[in-house]
Structure to design on (166 residues):
Protein backbone atom coordinates (compact mmCIF):
# COMPACT_ATOMS: atom_id res chain seq x y z
CA UNK A 1 0.00 0.00 0.00
CA UNK A 2 3.00 2.28 -0.44
CA UNK A 3 3.11 5.30 -2.70
CA UNK A 4 6.06 7.55 -3.64
CA UNK A 5 6.08 9.48 -0.40
CA UNK A 6 3.41 8.10 1.91
CA UNK A 7 1.88 4.79 2.92
CA UNK A 8 -1.69 3.75 3.62
CA UNK A 9 -1.84 1.40 6.61
CA UNK A 10 -4.21 0.31 9.38
CA UNK A 11 -4.26 2.83 12.23
CA UNK A 12 -2.69 2.04 15.58
CA UNK A 13 -3.77 3.35 18.96
CA UNK A 14 -0.72 5.67 18.99
CA UNK A 15 -2.03 7.39 15.82
CA UNK A 16 -5.30 8.45 17.39
CA UNK A 17 -4.13 11.78 18.80
CA UNK A 18 -3.03 12.83 15.29
CA UNK A 19 -6.25 11.47 13.79
CA UNK A 20 -8.31 13.46 16.31
CA UNK A 21 -6.31 16.60 15.55
CA UNK A 22 -7.03 16.25 11.82
CA UNK A 23 -10.70 15.56 12.55
CA UNK A 24 -10.98 18.68 14.73
CA UNK A 25 -9.11 20.83 12.22
CA UNK A 26 -11.04 19.76 9.13
CA UNK A 27 -14.58 18.75 10.11
CA UNK A 28 -17.36 20.15 12.29
CA UNK A 29 -18.32 16.60 13.31
CA UNK A 30 -15.98 15.66 16.17
CA UNK A 31 -16.06 12.74 18.53
CA UNK A 32 -14.66 11.79 21.93
CA UNK A 33 -11.44 9.75 22.13
CA UNK A 34 -13.47 6.71 23.26
CA UNK A 35 -15.38 6.70 19.95
CA UNK A 36 -12.16 6.50 17.92
CA UNK A 37 -10.85 3.72 20.18
CA UNK A 38 -14.10 1.77 19.84
CA UNK A 39 -14.04 1.89 16.03
CA UNK A 40 -10.35 0.97 15.97
CA UNK A 41 -10.94 -2.01 18.26
CA UNK A 42 -14.05 -3.27 16.45
CA UNK A 43 -12.89 -2.71 12.87
CA UNK A 44 -9.07 -2.48 12.95
CA UNK A 45 -8.57 -3.43 9.30
CA UNK A 46 -10.77 -0.65 7.95
CA UNK A 47 -9.55 2.21 10.18
CA UNK A 48 -6.78 3.54 7.95
CA UNK A 49 -4.22 6.30 8.01
CA UNK A 50 -2.04 7.84 5.32
CA UNK A 51 1.37 8.33 6.92
CA UNK A 52 4.62 9.97 5.88
CA UNK A 53 7.68 9.77 8.14
CA UNK A 54 5.53 9.37 11.25
CA UNK A 55 3.13 12.18 10.35
CA UNK A 56 -0.50 11.24 9.77
CA UNK A 57 -1.71 13.09 6.65
CA UNK A 58 -5.22 11.70 6.55
CA UNK A 59 -7.49 9.00 7.95
CA UNK A 60 -10.64 7.06 7.21
CA UNK A 61 -12.76 5.25 9.78
CA UNK A 62 -15.67 2.97 9.19
CA UNK A 63 -18.08 0.58 10.78
CA UNK A 64 -20.04 -2.42 9.59
CA UNK A 65 -23.73 -2.15 10.32
CA UNK A 66 -26.57 -4.56 9.86
CA UNK A 67 -29.67 -2.77 8.82
CA UNK A 68 -32.64 -2.35 6.59
CA UNK A 69 -32.31 -3.28 2.93
CA UNK A 70 -30.35 -0.71 0.99
CA UNK A 71 -30.18 0.35 -2.61
CA UNK A 72 -28.00 -2.53 -3.71
CA UNK A 73 -29.00 -5.06 -1.05
CA UNK A 74 -32.55 -6.34 -1.00
CA UNK A 75 -32.48 -8.54 2.09
CA UNK A 76 -32.95 -7.62 5.74
CA UNK A 77 -29.90 -7.59 8.02
CA UNK A 78 -27.71 -6.65 5.04
CA UNK A 79 -24.12 -5.83 5.92
CA UNK A 80 -23.42 -2.20 5.17
CA UNK A 81 -20.01 -0.61 5.29
CA UNK A 82 -20.64 2.84 6.76
CA UNK A 83 -17.97 5.45 6.10
CA UNK A 84 -18.04 7.33 9.40
CA UNK A 85 -15.33 9.91 8.77
CA UNK A 86 -12.58 10.68 6.27
CA UNK A 87 -10.28 13.68 6.08
CA UNK A 88 -6.94 14.74 4.63
CA UNK A 89 -4.83 17.65 5.91
CA UNK A 90 -5.47 20.73 3.71
CA UNK A 91 -1.82 20.98 2.57
CA UNK A 92 -1.90 17.37 1.31
CA UNK A 93 -5.14 17.43 -0.67
CA UNK A 94 -5.54 16.72 -4.38
CA UNK A 95 -2.69 14.21 -4.35
CA UNK A 96 -4.97 11.18 -4.47
CA UNK A 97 -4.73 10.40 -0.73
CA UNK A 98 -8.48 10.60 -0.09
CA UNK A 99 -9.25 8.32 -3.00
CA UNK A 100 -6.65 5.75 -1.95
CA UNK A 101 -7.95 5.76 1.63
CA UNK A 102 -11.46 5.17 0.26
CA UNK A 103 -10.40 2.30 -2.02
CA UNK A 104 -8.34 0.52 0.65
CA UNK A 105 -11.08 1.16 3.24
CA UNK A 106 -13.75 -0.32 0.96
CA UNK A 107 -11.60 -3.41 0.36
CA UNK A 108 -11.19 -3.86 4.13
CA UNK A 109 -14.93 -3.41 4.75
CA UNK A 110 -15.64 -5.98 2.06
CA UNK A 111 -13.36 -8.39 3.93
CA UNK A 112 -15.63 -7.80 6.94
CA UNK A 113 -18.58 -8.79 4.76
CA UNK A 114 -19.89 -5.42 3.54
CA UNK A 115 -22.25 -5.82 0.59
CA UNK A 116 -22.87 -2.11 0.13
CA UNK A 117 -21.16 1.09 1.26
CA UNK A 118 -23.07 4.06 2.63
CA UNK A 119 -22.14 7.55 3.82
CA UNK A 120 -23.61 10.94 4.64
CA UNK A 121 -22.12 14.13 3.23
CA UNK A 122 -23.06 17.80 3.56
CA UNK A 123 -24.94 18.89 0.46
CA UNK A 124 -22.48 21.82 0.01
CA UNK A 125 -19.30 19.73 0.44
CA UNK A 126 -18.27 19.82 -3.20
CA UNK A 127 -14.78 18.27 -2.87
CA UNK A 128 -16.15 15.27 -0.97
CA UNK A 129 -19.17 14.91 -3.26
CA UNK A 130 -16.87 14.97 -6.31
CA UNK A 131 -14.61 12.34 -4.76
CA UNK A 132 -17.49 10.02 -3.83
CA UNK A 133 -19.06 10.35 -7.29
CA UNK A 134 -15.69 9.60 -8.92
CA UNK A 135 -15.68 6.38 -6.88
CA UNK A 136 -19.14 5.32 -8.07
CA UNK A 137 -21.28 6.54 -5.17
CA UNK A 138 -24.78 7.73 -6.00
CA UNK A 139 -27.09 10.02 -4.07
CA UNK A 140 -29.89 7.92 -2.57
CA UNK A 141 -31.81 10.76 -0.92
CA UNK A 142 -31.45 14.01 0.97
CA UNK A 143 -31.71 13.92 4.77
CA UNK A 144 -33.08 17.32 5.80
CA UNK A 145 -31.36 19.01 8.75
CA UNK A 146 -29.07 16.04 9.36
CA UNK A 147 -26.21 18.08 10.87
CA UNK A 148 -26.26 19.91 14.22
CA UNK A 149 -26.11 23.29 12.47
CA UNK A 150 -29.17 22.43 10.39
CA UNK A 151 -27.46 21.63 7.10
CA UNK A 152 -28.86 18.72 5.14
CA UNK A 153 -26.95 15.63 4.09
CA UNK A 154 -27.01 13.47 1.03
CA UNK A 155 -27.16 9.80 1.82
CA UNK A 156 -24.90 8.17 -0.76
CA UNK A 157 -24.43 4.53 -1.57
CA UNK A 158 -22.33 2.22 -3.70
CA UNK A 159 -22.39 -1.52 -4.20
CA UNK A 160 -19.43 -3.56 -2.97
CA UNK A 161 -19.64 -6.23 -5.66
CA UNK A 162 -16.96 -4.85 -7.99
CA UNK A 163 -14.43 -3.93 -5.28
CA UNK A 164 -11.56 -6.39 -5.60
CA UNK A 165 -9.98 -7.69 -2.42
CA UNK A 166 -6.28 -8.17 -3.17
N1 LIG B 1 -12.80 20.14 -6.02
C1 LIG B 1 -13.30 19.31 -6.95
N2 LIG B 1 -13.09 17.95 -6.94
C2 LIG B 1 -12.35 17.47 -5.93
C3 LIG B 1 -11.78 18.30 -4.94
C4 LIG B 1 -12.02 19.70 -5.02
N3 LIG B 1 -11.53 20.56 -4.12
N4 LIG B 1 -11.10 17.53 -4.06
C5 LIG B 1 -11.21 16.24 -4.50
N5 LIG B 1 -11.98 16.21 -5.63
C6 LIG B 1 -12.37 15.03 -6.40
C7 LIG B 1 -11.63 14.97 -7.71
O1 LIG B 1 -12.44 14.22 -8.61
C8 LIG B 1 -10.40 14.20 -7.33
O2 LIG B 1 -9.76 13.57 -8.40
P1 LIG B 1 -8.68 14.44 -9.28
O3 LIG B 1 -7.75 15.11 -8.30
O4 LIG B 1 -8.02 13.37 -10.10
O5 LIG B 1 -9.48 15.43 -10.06
C9 LIG B 1 -11.00 13.15 -6.40
O6 LIG B 1 -11.98 13.86 -5.68
C10 LIG B 1 -10.00 12.51 -5.47
O7 LIG B 1 -9.21 13.51 -4.88
P2 LIG B 1 -8.13 13.18 -3.78
O8 LIG B 1 -6.88 13.95 -4.05
O9 LIG B 1 -7.99 11.70 -3.65
O10 LIG B 1 -8.86 13.72 -2.46
P3 LIG B 1 -8.14 14.45 -1.23
O11 LIG B 1 -6.97 13.69 -0.76
O12 LIG B 1 -7.95 15.88 -1.55
O13 LIG B 1 -9.30 14.27 -0.11
C11 LIG B 1 -11.31 14.97 0.96
C12 LIG B 1 -10.66 14.59 -0.38
C13 LIG B 1 -12.82 15.17 0.73
C14 LIG B 1 -11.11 13.84 1.96
C15 LIG B 1 -10.66 16.30 1.45
O14 LIG B 1 -11.07 17.37 0.63
C16 LIG B 1 -10.97 16.66 2.90
O15 LIG B 1 -10.30 16.19 3.83
N6 LIG B 1 -12.01 17.48 3.11
C17 LIG B 1 -12.37 17.91 4.47
C18 LIG B 1 -13.00 16.77 5.23
C19 LIG B 1 -14.27 16.29 4.54
O16 LIG B 1 -15.03 17.05 4.00
N7 LIG B 1 -14.47 14.96 4.59
C20 LIG B 1 -15.64 14.32 4.00
C21 LIG B 1 -16.76 14.37 4.94
S1 LIG B 1 -18.21 13.56 4.28
Amino acid sequence: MANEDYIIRPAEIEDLHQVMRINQKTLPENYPYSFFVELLKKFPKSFLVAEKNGEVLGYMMNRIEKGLPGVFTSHFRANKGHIVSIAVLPEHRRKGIGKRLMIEGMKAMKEYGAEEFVLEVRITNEPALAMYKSLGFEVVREIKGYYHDGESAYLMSRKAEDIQIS
In short: The chain has a mean pLDDT of 93. The first helix runs from residue 16 to 26.
